[in-house]
Each structure stands twice: as C-alpha cells, then as structure tokens.
Amino acid sequence: MIDSSDDIPFFGDSEPVKRPSGLAARAMAARNQSAPAPDYLIGLNPEQRQAVVTTEGPLLVLAGAGTGKTRVLTTRIAHILATGLAFPSQILAVTFTNKAAREMKERVGMLVGGAVEGMPWLGTFHSIGVKLLRRHAELVGLRSDFTILDTDDVVRLIKQLIQAEGLDDKRWPARQFAQMIDGWKNKGMAPHEIPEGDARAFANGKGRELYEAYQNRLKTLNACDFGDLLCHPIRMLRANPDVLADYHRKFKYLLVDEYQDTNTAQYMWLRLLAQRPQSKEPGQRGGSVNVCCVGDDDQSIYGWRGAEVDNILRFDKDFPGATIIRLERNYRSTEHILGAAGHLIAHNEGRLGKTLFTEQSDPEHEKVQVHAAWDSEEEARAVGETIEQLQRPDANGRRHNLNDMAILVRASFQMREFEDRFVTMGLNYRVIGGPRFYERQEIRDAMAYFRAVCQPADDLAFERIVNVPKRGLGDATIRQLHDYARARDIPMIAAARDLVETEELKPKARKSLRDVVEGFTRWSAALENTPHTELAERILEESGYTEMWQNDKSAEAPGRLENLKELIRSMDFYESMRGFLEHVALVMDAEQNEDMDAVSIMTLHSAKGLEFETVFLPGWEEGLFPHQRSLDEGGRSGLEEERRLAYVGLTRAKKRAHLWFVSNRRIHGLWQSTIPSRFLDELPEAHVEVAEAEMSYGGYNRFGGGSSGFSAGRQNPYGASRFDNPEIFASTYETPGWKRAQANRTDATSRNWGSRSGHQVERVGYGESGPRGVRTIEGELVAKSTTDTPSAFSIGDRVFHMKFGNGNVAAIEGNKLTIDFDKAGQKRVLDGFVTPV
DNA sequence: CCGAGGATAATTTTT
DNA sequence: TTATCCTCGG
Question: Which of A305, A328, A431, A734 has the highest Cβ tally under 10 A?
Fold first, then answer.
C-alpha cells in the first residue's frame, strides 16, 4: 500500500487517536458550555457562519466569486474537527486540482494547528480514487501496484490497437479515440454501456470493440488511465456492498469543492459514498447524508470536458431536504466590476441565481473600461502602454506591481502578440499554463526508464525507451519483441530477456538488446538497496540517456539536461522511486517562480480561482469570444458557457478591468475583419465606460482615413451594436434598436454559424447591400471553400483594403489574394475584404 | 537513421 | 501563418 498517511485505524475509528488541544480544545469547551463562539468563527459573515455550522444533512453552498468559499470550506472542516464530530480520517474532502487540495490542507492545518494529523482523505477525485483502488485493486482485476497512464501513453497504446485492427490510423486518429474513451469514462460508461451511435461512429463501426480491446490491454498492462481512477472505484463499490458499507461507516462527512465542475462519473462516485443507509450511529441523523457541496453554477466553464452543470442545479432534488446557502457578499471587487459581471451573467438562463454585492463602494472607483483597437498588434501595444502607465508612480506616489496585473485571453494563440510586445518593451511577464514540466520529452523519457524499472509489466514505458538513445533496435526488432510477448502473454522486458538467449535476432540487435536487458536487471536489483535519487542518476547515466543529450548540439539540449537534474533533485522529496512516480502521475504541475515582479499572461480557464488588482481582457470579438467553436458545437449552452467564462474573467479583477476588442485579427494567417463581442453589449451602461484615444498611438493612423481608423465603413452583420459607431463610442452610450439587433443576431447565428461542413459560408464585401449575410471569421471554413469558388478578381486588379489601403493583386488562389500594397507591402487576404478601385 | 518537405490542423485543460 | 506530424528518400 502506497499511502502511509492514513495511520489512523481504518475501520472502527471509535477511539480518539489524539485529543484535540489548543484551539480545538477551546472550541470543544465552547460547544459544551454554550460559551461565546470559538475564535475560528469570528470574522465570518452570517451566511458563511451558517455554512460552517450546518454540519448535519445535505448542504449546498452557492459561493459566488470572491465570497470566501475556501474559507468556509476550511473553517467547516476545522469546526467538525474542533467539535469532535469526526476525526480527520472520517472526513472525505474532494477537490478538482492538486493545487486546491494542497491549499485546503494548508489552511485547515493553520486553523486547527498541530492538534490533528493531516487529513488522509483530502485530495482530488483522482488521488482518492487511486487510494481506494490500491486497497481493493484485486476486486477490479488489477494488482495494487498498477501503473497510471497519462494521455500520451494512452494515445500511443490506442494507436497500436488501431493498427493491430488493421485500420488506417490516419483516418481514425488515436487522439480522437482517446478523447472519446475519456468522454465515455466521464460518464461512467463501460464498453457495453456506450450508445450504439457512439460505437458506430469510430473505426468503421468498431468503436465498442476497440474500447473493449483497450480495456483488456490495460488489464494486461496492470494499468489505469485517468478515467479508470473514477470508474473502477464506482464499479468496485457497486459490486461489493460490504466494502461500500465499510466506507459508509467510515466517512461521517463529505465535502466537495467546485461542485459545478463534477462530471457524471464523479457524481455517481459521490452519490455512492453519500447515500448511506439508515444509521443509528451518533453524529448522524438516521439516513441523512452529511454531504456539503460548494460551488458556483455561474463559474462552470468545463462543460467541454464532461462537467455537468446540471449536477449543481439539481442538488436539492438529488438530496431531498437539502439546505441551500448563498454566499453573495463579495470581498474582492469594486461595485462596478460586480455590476458589470452581474448584469452580463444575468443573460444566462438556467442558473440558480445569485447577485453579488459589495460594501466597497466609492465614487473614486474606476468603471469597467472598454477599449477598441484597430488590430491585435495595436491591442498589445496599448495594453503594454497602460501597464507602463500603471507602473509609474501616480499623483500620490503610488505605483502598481506587475504581479497585480494579468492579461486573460480566450485562446492561447492570443498570448504571442503580448509576449512579443513585452519582449520589445522589456516588460517582465510570465505565462501561466502552457506545456508543463512533466510533459517535456526528456522528463517523460527519464520517467519511462524509472517506470520500467519499478514496474516490469509496464510495456509502454519499456517500449518508449528501448531505443532511446538509439541502439539500433528498430521497428523490426520491436515488432518481434511485441509478438513474442503477446504470444506468451508476458511483459516485453521478459520477452527481451528470453529472446537474447535465442538465435532469432540479428547479431547487432541482439547485442544491444542484451545490454538493455542487463541494465534493467541491474537496476531492478538495486531498487531495494540503493537510495532512489542515486539509482535514478545511475539509470540515466548507464543507459546512455544523459550522454545522448550531452552529444546533442541543438539549442534545447542544455535546457533538457538542466531539467533532468531538476527532476532528480525533486525526487529527493519522496521516500522511494515508486512514491515519486505515483506523485508525478497524479500531480502534473510544477511551481512557478513567484519572486519576479511580472505581468501574468494566461487563458481565462486557468485564471479561475485567481484574483488581480488589474485585469486586461483582450479579444472580445465575435468568433473569438464567444468562440466560434463553442457556438457551433454547443449551441445555446455553448454560448452560455462562454458567457460564464466572461463572467469568470471579469470577476478576477479587484480594482480595474480593461476590456478590448479589435477590428481586425489574423486568424490562421489571414486577416479577418471582426465585430465586437455581443458580451460587450450585455454590459450595463452604469458600470462601464468607453475609453477613448488609445487608438491614435504612435501615429498609427491608418489608411481607412477616419480619425480613429476604427469602424469607418465597417458593417456589422448583426445590425447595429453600440460599439459600431464612433460618435456613440465617444460618450452617450445609447443602445438604439438593440432589441431588434439582438433578434437579428440570434437569427443569423442559427442560420449560418452552425455550418461546419463548409461551402455555405456567405461572405459580404464591403459596402455591399442587399440581404445581410454573416461574415464568418472561421478561417477553416473560409479556407476550405477556396478551391471551387473562383475569385472575382484577376491578377493586376487595383484594389482597396481596409487595413492595408490600395494595392495590386499579385496572385490568386481560390478566394485568397496575394496583394502588393502600396504602403503595407505584400499580404495575403481574403477577396471578401477588398474592393475594386 | 536522419533530414527534408509535404500534409494537416490550428479553444479551453485536469487528472 | 505557423507548428507539428509523418512519410519518404538518401
């Protein structure tokens, strides 16, 4: 068993292991003598306090952004412990991310002091799933030392299976099937449970068989994917009522963080554990479920990966008699930010409904600012300028730290422009998210070595490194190994051991393979009696892996070596190599250095849960935000999720929020004219102000001729938006005919934006009148429609383009024109965006 | 076994 | 446009 943390007797936690002392003791005393509230309740507002002390029965805490959600959760745990309602090991507390789990552990620790041991059952759904599985692995046909595969392994495995089926792995991409499996597992569905339609949709109708083959393969590999960490426990608990009953007895309190993000499997898992049969034990009313879910339906932004907002919306039906507490008092943002965010999110249907309020109201507070820029380059430049301005001391000598500012983008391609700009400006920035430490090639290779040593059955790991560094063990040899292993149902490494003793291999391959096998034999032997960091170093050394990078002349090689050193160093924190591998499988994040003062750049998704004084939200344009794909694939609910994303973005800001939209954005290399996001029009006038003048930066006055270069001659296919018109833009902020525009908009949306199959794209040239079409900004569609739509232009034509001015057509490919512009040089644009002169 | 060049696809991300 | 992946040729 891997976990040593659960040192409290597993079943029958009837004897206190440690007497709570200090704060906890005082709290207990307070409870017994109905004395004044214990310290930890002080400073909580009435709703928060109620959420903390309502320990019995189902409870849903609807915690709006910045309303002290984590505080409630941690205080609640502290309260349960302090009042002796349960021991740490009797509380099951689940979060989504390791970060959240870590934070919660820390904060509970601070509240309760050293009085109680760390909570063994506080963790992510997945880590708790692993814990359950390690205990009861045999009940689902695994050994307790099973391996956890990550996405990369899974894809490679599936690819093998697809090829083994004799299918074309181009036509049926493994990645896509991996996602399908993940989707099924998110719903808790085993191969025989998936809908017929789904099964038919892949691999010439062999989807189900393939899924089955995949599961079988995992079993032989003694491995789990992430989805299994949820699904196996469910199956195990269902099939073994006695085990389930043990856990029912064990867990007195259940807490779930971010409930709006739970998927169906997690929901089933939770219900299984929460639905305790009638119980006469003290501390629980007969049959009631002490389950407390905390979440915010307005911040549900992970529908695309299986989260079911419905879980939170249905809570009181799932748990009859549930108490629902709303936390609406916001401690983070100004009245303007809350006003803007609240008004925006009110456009969503199907929400439980909350209105955040604050007592921080001050005429000095800035309204939410909306800025327009000509294109994304100007957007980045202007944001950079604003940041510099904030950095300079103001009239009161106050300056702002870069750490207090963040740029939150919808899609990561937007980051680049900001990075470029900040590099030239010499402005410190850090990108949050992005490729992670443990996903780097060299780290994964090294890990594969370690895995293969610890886990001789881990064929995937073995296969990954058997020829890394190059040892002349090509495809042919690998296939041979593979076949031999499959035929005898043994791990590949065992097959290798056998094969080197035979004459079946070519002498060269045989020699190399023998070296590899001997290496693994040595390392396995050393596993028990060598310090694991030392062994790790030895493995990388003796296998020639380190050397491989030392000989590599590429620019990244030194960095990779550095990463390997870092990997070894970080192993020091773990007791054993196995412990380390387990950690890495589940915790894929690595900390960022917080020392430097720098602006953060990240996606809106990764910003959830964070807060900044000043937040920049660029790219509020139709097609980007709300994103085209969300609209195409998710329809109305897709739009609502985008709106929640906007809400999340806005509510990250404490003091200042700057929204931006541009008129032109380059998408897949082509310049596209864009229109302001509908979300901008959904903001309340009272809390929003349209910023001016930013546009004439550095004399970038454009060819359009208008003073701002913005919106002249542009047509909004939806009809009028208050952001279309420069005069309105200046001050008055009227929304004439907005209702009508809204109507046109939805109309147009369903008519045209739902087309993913190409060719129905209607483009509207500038100044064209007649029936209004929608100008798609979806590069894919436009690009695909090229081949059979000959352009109306011919080489040599004199044309005018909004961004680049006048020029001559130099080349034509379908509807893509290459134009030599007089001022801007050669560019490629869509013919819809130029007019003949 | 490596490198070049063509095809392909380009939201969001945790575990 | 750009990045990545994969195939093909040397």
Answer: A431
Task: Give catalytic status of residue A506 as yes or no.
Answer: no
Any idea which fold A437-590 has? Answer: PCRA; domain 4 (1.10.486)
Query: How many Å apart are CA A775 and CA A756, to the nearest integer?
Result: 14
- How far is it, in rounded angstroms, from Cα A47 to Cα A68? 11
Binding residues of A for ATP: 63-70
Q: Is the pLDDT of residue A412 over 60?
A: yes
> Active site includes A235?
no
Catalytically annotated residue among A6, A26, A54, A70: A70
Residue with tokens 């501390």: A283
CATH topology of domain A339-436+592-690: Rossmann fold (3.40.50)
Q: How would residue A277 be classed by pLDDT, with cut points 50, 70 and 90?
A: low
pLDDT at A720: 55
Beta strands A798-801; A805-813: pairing state: antiparallel
The answer to whether domain A40-146+222-328 and domain A339-436+592-690 are alike in fold is: yes
Q: Where are the alpha helices (DSSP H) in A173-206?
A: 174-186, 196-200
Buried b or exposed e, range A356-369, using 16+ CB within 10 angstroms: bbbebeeeeebbbb
Domain residue limits, chain A: 40-146+222-328, 150-221, 339-436+592-690, 437-590, 797-836
Model pTM score = 0.83
Interval A397-409: pLDDT, tens = 889 999 999 999 9
For strand C, the positions having any atom within 7 A of a protein Cβ are 1-2, 7
- Residue A394 near residue A380 (C-beta atoms within 8 A): no
Fold type of domain A40-146+222-328:
Rossmann fold (3.40.50)
Q: Is A69 a catalytic residue?
A: yes
Query: Under CATH, to which class is A150-221 assigned?
Result: mainly alpha
Which residue is closest, via its CA, to the C1' of C1? A669
SS3 content of chain A, % helix, strand, coil (to 5): 50, 15, 40
Quote the pLDDT of residue A31. Answer: 47
Q: What is the mean pLDDT of residues A700-714?
A: 34
Residue A455: how many other CB atoms lie within 10 Å: 22
Q: Which of A42, A113, A59 is nearest to A82 (CA)?
A: A113
Sequence-ordered alpha helix ranges (H) in A671-774: 678-681, 726-730, 738-752
Residue from A47, A225, A257, A831 carrying the catalytic annotation: A257
Cis peptide before A626 (omega within 30 of 0): yes
Helix axes A46-53, A69-82, angle to 10 degrees: 40
Which range, of A349-358, A578-587, A613-622, A711-720, averages the lowest pLDDT? A711-720
User: Alpha-carbon torsion A369, A374, A376, A380, what sign?
Assistant: negative
Residue A574 near residue A584 (C-beta atoms within 8 A):
no
Nearest CA to A485 out of A736, A160, A103, A794 is that of A160
Strand B neighbors by CB, 7 A? A 96-99, 124, 126-127, 150-151, 226, 229, 304-305, 410-413, 433, 436, 467, 470-474, 586-589, 602-603, 605-606, 627, 629-630, 633-634, 638, 642, 668-669, 779-780, 783
| Predicted confidence (pLDDT) at residue A20 exceeds the cutoff of 50 | no
User: How much is the pLDDT for A407?
Assistant: 97
